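**User:** I keep going back and forth on a fold encoding question. It is easy to fool oneself when nobody else works the same problem. Could you pick a protein and write out its sequence and tokenised fold? Could you put it straight underneath, so I can go through it closely?

**Assistant:**
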Amino acid sequence: METYHYFFTIIGGFVVVYELRDYLKTPKEKYDEEVFISGELKPDPLLLVKPVPLERKLNFSIDTPPHYPIIHGIQLYGMDKWYTPVGLVVGNVAYSCLPQYLYSGFNIFNVEKYPSSIKNNNKTKGLRCSDINLIFGLHDSKLYVSVEFKDLQKEETIGYIEFNHWKLYKPNLLDFRSDNKRLEVRDKQNNIVLAVAFVGNTEMNIVNISGYLIGTESVFVMPNGSYPRRSETKDTSICISKYSQNWKTTAQLEISKLKSVF
């Protein structure tokens, strides 16, 4: 564990992207290339990137209807020290971010390459799947998310979390559980829409993110991850185009593999 803490400390403030490559294409992989959006989720094997500043101020209001459930936030450690990094793991992508960026907000779908880490200065948009946003914010040493939830079948908005409170909550369309280490949202089909879980310790902050998010043109599925990842693990985040045939069936198959963090 000390080795990985040292790793996060060295690269704190930047985002490190690891890609697991398969060199032999099977018929299934060829099918996946036709159905899944490629390129956007295939960053360089080792890519340092930096968060893009948000254009809006984070809203940690507590003015919310009393019947809406409480969002506890994920408890982190050492956030009073600027050099203490937070590891965010989405599928096969590991981010390391300093508290200063999380206090101002960090959209995991919008990052830039760090020029000194690559041979050229081309930019990347990080994890990109249509116009989806997943923003992380830090407040009182607790990690929160800002994200809109949509039902896969009808594509209707069933909820909207704005960091420490709900902007929209439809109890007949979703279920919600939260404590200071985990947050989980399920839709009415009992699919896991979003799961955030603290899997580190008091010396190393690591948070796993899984679930599915729906954009105007695609569905982004984040499988349950773990860090450090083993080389034989093939779980990766998947961007499914709505223009492909049977995209809902394909998405449902991937979503059904998601596991609860409770």
Observations:
- The first strand starts at residue 15 and ends at 18.
- Helices lie at 2-11, 27-35, 99-104, 247-255.
